[in-house]
Write a structure and sequence with these properties.
By secondary structure, the chain is mostly helical. The chain is built from four helices and no strands. The longest helix has 18 residues. The relative contact order is 0.10.
C-alpha cells in the first residue's frame, strides 16, 4: 500500500514507483564504491611489546572468577550445561578447564567436544 513519502526536495511522492526511486537515489548517495587498489600495508613498530596468543597462559583463578560470576537464571549454553551447575562446580572445574584451555592454545587445536 502506498504511503506518502517526501522527495529530497521535500515535495511528496505521488506513487510507489516514485518513492522507490527516491529511496534508491538516497542509498546511492550514501554508499561509496570501493577502490580496486590494494589495501596498504602497515609497518608495526618493533619497539611495541605485543602479546601473541602463543604466550598467553590462563590461570585457574581466572576461570574460577568467570564461573563464579555466571548468571544462574540464564539458559544453558551450546554445551548444554546449566550455568548453576558450572557456578557450583567452579572449585572443581577451574584447574581442569585452565589446563584444557592452555593445552588448546599451545597446540593450536580445539577439542572436538
Amino acid at each position: 500500500m502506498f504511503q506518502l513519502r517526501r522527495k529530497s526536495d521535500k515535495t511528496p511522492t505521488q506513487t510507489d514507483a516514485e518513492a522507490a526511486k527516491e529511496l534508491s537515489e538516497f542509498f546511492k548517495s550514501v554508499f561509496v564504491k570501493e577502490s580496486s587498489e590494494p589495501v596498504p600495508e602497515f609497518n608495526v613498530d618493533s619497539n611495541i611489546n605485543t602479546q601473541t596468543i602463543e604466550n598467553i597462559e590462563i590461570q585457574p583463578a581466572e576461570i574460577h572468577r568467570k564461573l563464579a560470576s555466571l548468571k544462574v537464571d540464564k539458559s544453558p549454553g551450546p554445551g548444554g550445561m546449566h550455568p548453576r551447575v558450572l557456578q557450583e562446580m567452579a572449585n572443581t572445574l577451574d584447574t581442569s578447564l585452565a589446563m584444557l584451555f592452555n593445552k588448546s592454545i599451545k597446540d593450536g587445536i580445539l577439542p572436538e567436544d
